[in-house]
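hi! just following up on the protien thing from before. the input was this:
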Amino acid sequence: MLRGGADDCVPDTSDPVELAARIEAKLRRVPVPVENLLLDPRTGLYSQPHFLGELDRELKRADDSRSGGVVAMVGVAEMAALEVRLGPRVRREVAERLAGVAEKLGGVCDRLGWDDDGRLLMLMPGVDEDTARGALQQFANTVAGTRFVVADENVRLTPAIGWTPLTDCPDRHQAVDQARDAVAESIRHRDLRPVKYAAWMRGAPRARRRVTVAVQALLSALSPLFVLVLGVAIPFVFYQQMYELGWDIGSAAYWVVVGGLIVSAVLIVLECLFSLDAASRPERPAQPYPPASAVIAAYLPNEAATIVDTVESFLRLDYPNELEIVLAYNTPHPMPVEDTLRDMARSDPRLVLLPVAGSTSKAQNINAAVTRVRGDMVGIFDADHHPAPDAFKNAWHWLSHGYDVVQGHCVIRNGDSSWVAKLVGVEFEAIYAVSHPGRTRLYTFGVFGGSNGFWRTDLLARTRMHGSMLTEDIDATMRALHEGAKIATDRTLVSRELAPTTVKALWNQRSRWAQGWLQVSLKYLWPALRSSAFTFRQKAGLFVLLGWREVQPWLTLQILPVLLYAAWRAGGPGELDWAVPIGLLATLVTLSAGVVQALFAWRLAIPELRRRRAWFWRYLFVATFFYSHFKNIVARQALLKEVLRDQQWRVTPRSGGGKAVPRA
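and the predicted 3d structure came back as:
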């Protein structure tokens, strides 16, 4: 009772004279304002004035300390909405709940305080920045994965953490102000990552980029030439010079290239074979169907023509328990379609409209929605997806049997719109019906593909999406896998989407995908191979998925400098023996792998596409002689774009849907 805020406690059997004396003594006591107390009697936290006093003393020691320490502030992204609904009392209660988590974790946090807005203040003296960042990240993950009772209501909170080194702060007020500015930036992303203060957060100009925009644009335009120089000219000169020195490196490179082509082909065939034995969905759920939520992430100016059809398709879903549909969207200006959506929400309470102010990415929209959903299972979809009516019911069959995420089968529904859409339609069957199930069976882990994926809400709340990654879905996959999540793949869990209909749109989409995969590979490959969280089989799969996929496009390009070197050494192209058995074998194996993949894609495709045999023949021809090289070129360009720090997100344009493929 004392911890709950009582001044005193007496038993029910207290003597009336003693009780009257206690009351009289308290009435005569001079009251002390709460803010003048060293510690808040209810939360046990330093009041803001006393916390600033502690901070002052620490700042005087920071200059003499090898590790000056950190001051952090923790805001809550949902605070404004909570206060509107539950009143100002939630400020104190939220600070108290956050402090409880910090105290339970212990660690490097020395003193805890709070300000009048309910933000938690954390003083971490004598620690380096990496240690502080790690402790703050652990705190954020723990808070996000916990359901709190605030004002008698069960809520989920998104901690927004801003911090600044004490050595960068001349006084206590500037330290707190800098941490507050960093909190504002963290709230914008809602991705749980602690944000270090930077001067631009206060309107100061950003540090000048190493490469100006004009120079960057010029270098990007010349990137095909750079690829030829890096991948062909430099290796050829190297082989030539080494031969002059007595080292026949070019001949060894020939065997490496041939071996690489064979390895790539064998890996494709293995995935195809293992896809036949992919795990089947459990027939019955292990637990009753829980409340579920669908999150549709949308950028309205791009999705305005399709979003109403999408929402209507979700409202037709069949699920035996409560199902809410959350449309989390951002728009730079009001759109007429918003009036239509508001009318739909008024007529069907299952539809929840969530405009995300300040959002610039799909990741921010999902992060804003994850704390608002009520379901124990969350399905994530892009704004052009039409899931099958029983999608959520079938997804729960997986999650109820111990899986944390299940990735479904994305099917193209506008294949008749253009030859590009037909190509992508067959490619998606090769990816979602063959490669994903086969890889999951072969390496014992699946991959979340960004849409038509179903998560346990608690795991999604802890994982979030990082908007700084161009493929935030693969980044989230890696972090979930490292946490021990089990990800399944189900090719019978169908959702239909729109494919790009022009080569330019396809190029922009695949460029973003390739660069995003490269970012994930650079960030996670080496730590994953060293981690004890993965088995040897999983590490082999991660090496193929993150390592080999980045090496292979450059390795295939080496056939050009190797042939140039061989022709130079032989005295001209006419002097070469083109019928080398091992070279013919490598060519045959590589071509046959493409045939096998197309055959398996047709065999495992959904019925409505399997009837389109001409699409698969066209895909086999185009992929063999054009599309495979197209994707390799995109992958090489992605490396140069990442080096140039060109990380612009180019939105894939959506139309009204074009011609739909008739369903079975």
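The chain has a mean pLDDT of 86.
Residues 221-279+401-664 form one domain.
cheers
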